[in-house]
Amino acid sequence: MIPLFKSSKTVKKQLDDFFNKVDESGLIFVDGVRHYLDRNPKRFADELKKIDRVEGDADELRRSIENDLYKYSLLPEFRGDVLRLLDKLDDLIDRAKENMMRFDIEQPDFPEDMHRLFRELSEATTKSIEYLVIAVRAFFNDLKKVKDQLHRVYYYEKEADDIADELKRKLFGKDCDLSQKQHLRYFIEHTEKLSDRAEEVADMLSIYAIKRSV
After folding, report:
1. Domain layout of the chain by residue ranges
2. I need a surface site. Which of 11, 18, 148, 167 has the fewest CB within 10 A?
3. What are the residue ranges in the chain where pLDDT is below 50?
4. DSSP string, 79-145
5. Which 8-state DSSP code applies to residue 64?
6. 9-213: which CATH topology?
7. Positive or negative: CA dihedral 133, 135, 136, 140
8. What is the DSSP code (8-state) at residue 1?
9. What are phi and psi of 128, to 5 degrees?
10. Could you report the per-residue pLDDT of 88-128, keeping only the tens digit for each?
11. Which pLDDT belongs to residue 70?
């Protein structure tokens, strides 16, 4: 296995902090959904402030890491891969925040009997992000463990797909206006897409791991 870093503890620490922010964004998202469904606007607003801070912190870390990658001894052939990986991980934070902003602005009204499933959808999505972060950490620290963690990303992405399908069937079986159905479907699909993005990053990471092991 080719080592990515030869000397810099600074970059390693910044990467670890950045991965914490990605993981935290998923946890904030699932808590935000729970508070929204529980009709607790104050707690939801608190989570929205948290994810705004996390996004800002992550952006600063990413820019600092990008600068330092050119200062320290990351092998040039892997530098582009790492930069693309950071960009895609940062996009996950952005999308989690955007989804919470949509809840705040559009105020979707989910029927009570859909709350449990929607919570499960947000939890499965968050799990896919959680295991992606573990896989990314392994990519930098213990390459042999990447494959097992990626398997879990794919598992929870499929779980999110299945729950989203169940939610949409339940939604469109209801006796309510088509406009409301379309509005709620929009939120189901955007929550599900978070796990889709995690899967895309997992695919990228799988290729990078193969390249590093050669």
Report:
1. 9-213
2. 148
3. 1-2
4. HHHHHHHHHHHHHHHHHHHHHHHHHHHH-----GGGHHHHHHHHHHHHHHHHHHHHHHHHHHH-GGG
5. H
6. Methane Monooxygenase Hydroxylase; Chain G, domain 1 (1.20.58)
7. positive
8. -
9. -65, -40
10. 999 999 999 999 999 999 999 999 999 999 999 999 999 99
11. 75
